[in-house]
Design brief:
Length: about 240
């Protein structure tokens, strides 16, 4: 599969950079949605009062788009909240300096990405996938950073936020009639509309798993693992 995916080493215990130190708990389904309708079109709301919908409740109004949007909401929260949590001075952090410099992977850099490069890669890939959904030419070189000039933490957070908005729009257009339409492109193509949607969610989950390790290596507990996860920001 021609797509900008990568590799990552094991984690070690965190140190003391974070003001929030909680047991490492990860809730893969915690942020699925608070209500069915909200999950389909927005980031999840974090309330301890309203339980998530049951399977029976979901089945009443479930569509192809809502199923994908619900899972995307979880991944968007995890990735964006992790990007917000990392201090700007640590955006240049790289877990193992030069570790892979002598390797020649078929895709991706020959050296481990910095945290900033992780964020930029995810944003570029999301926009590339969205372009393929729309039958447009995707940005080139997302495996090596892509063409966008975003560099500072603020610029990268805006880039990331906008990339998820583009993906949500693409997912909203998926329905029972077009879900198996062919999708071409250099990122995860050839594929179908449904198949590409699966890749989008997997790709974001893959890189969130890497970003979590970057955070914990610096003593920062990912917001998704906090007892009461905070919402992501709308503006930066």
């Amino acid at each position: 599969m021609n797509s900008p995916f990568c590799y990552f080493p094991a984690c070690r215990p965190a140190n003391n950079h974070s003001a929030r130190h909680f047991p490492a708990r990860h809730f893969p389904t915690r942020f699925a949605s608070i209500t069915f309708l909200c999950a389909a079109f927005a980031l999840p709301a974090f309330s301890q009062q309203i339980p998530p919908p049951t399977a029976a409740e979901l089945s009443v109004k479930e569509t192809v788009a809502s199923a994908f949007l619900r899972r995307l909401a979880s991944q968007e929260y995890e990735v964006r909240s992790a990007a917000e949590a990392m201090p700007e001075e640590l955006y240049t952090f790289r877990p193992a300096e030069g570790k892979f410099k002598n390797e020649k992977p078929p895709v991706g850099p020959a050296e481990m990405r910095t945290f900033a490069e992780q964020v930029k890669h995810v944003a570029c890939a999301n926009l590339a996938f969205a372009a393929e959904f729309n039958g447009e030419k995707p940005p080139e070189g997302c495996d090596k950073g892509g063409p966008d000039p975003a560099k500072t933490k603020r610029e990268l957070l805006i880039y990331l936020r906008n990339s998820f908005a583009a993906i949500r729009k693409s997912f909203t257009a998926i329905n029972a009639k077009n879900q198996f339409d062919p999708i071409e492109g250099p990122y995860a193509g050839p594929n179908t509309r449904m198949g590409l949607a699966v890749v989008v969610i997997w790709h974001n989950a893959d890189h969130y798993g890497q970003m979590v390790i970057y955070l914990r290596l610096n003593g920062i507990v990912p917001p998704a693992s906090w007892p009461t996860p905070p919402p992501v920001k709308d503006t930066y």
